[in-house]
Design goal:
This protein is mostly helical. It contains one helix and no strands.
């Protein structure tokens, strides 16, 4: 019987994601200086993940 793919080891799950969550996008925009405190979190600019 084979093992279900969801039970993979944690070492094989280190895949680079190409979609960021909203808080990650805000943090990245803050770091780049494109977002200031008080700006709206809806309709954020598109951001590529850091490499």
């Amino acid at each position: 019987m084979s093992q279900h793919p969801s039970f993979k080891s944690s070492s094989s799950l280190q895949v680079k994601r190409n979609v960021l969550k909203r808080f990650e996008r805000v943090d990245l925009l803050k770091k780049r200086g494109a977002w200031k405190e008080g700006d709206r979190v809806v309709g954020l600019k598109k951001t590529a993940p850091e490499e």
